[in-house]
Amino acid sequence: MRIFYDTEFHDDGTTIDLISIGMVREDGTELYAVSSEFDQAAVRRHGWLMANVWPTLPTIEPARGERGLTRLDLAHPDVRPRAQIARLVADFIRSTPNPELWAYYSAYDHVALAQLFGPMSNLPAVGIPMQTDDLVTAAKLAGLTPHDLPKQADGHHNALADARHNLVMARHIDTVTSRTTR
Ligand SMILES: [Mg+2]
């Protein structure tokens, strides 16, 4: 069964720091988690992430009269330490029959997911796919470009909303593929 997922991350050219991950299975089962450990100060300095990703995260305002910045709501149930997210992701994948990982422009997503377990050699040997298939490649093989795929109505850059849209795009590619192979 295919698992469609998306990650949001801070990429500085050297490190991929996971912010959030959303996963949607073909049977509708979902997982969403936000890391409690990403570098909030670095994200605050990153204009694009502040404009596009930060507003989708659970945050709290400083109390009235209190100085300070909006910060990640560490008490929110979606916000978890990386080790806990790693366990949830591993359980989610391992509970999926014949799991395949799929993402859209998937290269960075795969690294962000795999690094939950540490370096590449730490990826659990049993039950976690060693690569993520790319919807862009699937589209290309179906004779489509990314522009031919369904457009996401809302929720852009919320990892779960993006993962749900990955499923929508995959279904579209499936339709085109079965049409052309008939
Ligand atoms: Mg995204």
Using brief descriptors, characterize the structure shown:
single chain, about 180 residues, alpha/beta, Nucleotidyltransferase, domain 5, 6-stranded mixed beta sheet, two-stranded antiparallel ribbon, 8 strands, about 35% helix, binds magnesium ion
Which SSEs are present, and which pair or pack?
Blueprint: E1 2-11, E2 16-25, E3 30-35, H1 40-44, H2 47-52, E4 59-60, E5 71-72, E6 79-80, H3 82-94, E7 100-103, H4 107-114, E8 133-134, H5 135-141, H6 159-181
Parallel strand pairs: 1-7, 3-6, 7-8
Antiparallel strand pairs: 1-2, 2-3, 4-5
Residues 6, 8, 157, 159, 162 line the site of magnesium ion.
Q: Can you characterise this structure?
A:
With 182 residues, the protein is an alpha/beta fold. It has a single domain, classed as Nucleotidyltransferase, domain 5 (2-Layer Sandwich). It contains 6 helices and 8 strands, in the order βββααβββαβαβαα. It has helices at 40-44, 47-52, 82-94, 107-114, 135-141, 159-181; strands spanning 2-11, 16-25, 30-35, 59-60, 71-72, 79-80, 100-103, 133-134. The strands form 2 sheets. Strands 6-3-2-1-7-8 form a 6-stranded mixed β-sheet. A two-stranded antiparallel sheet has the order 4-5. A hairpin with a 4-residue loop joins strand 2 (16-25) and strand 3. The longest helix has 23 residues, at 159-181. The protein starts with a strand and ends with a helix. The mean pLDDT is 94. The chain binds magnesium ion (MG). Magnesium ion is lined by residues 6, 8, 157, 159, 162.
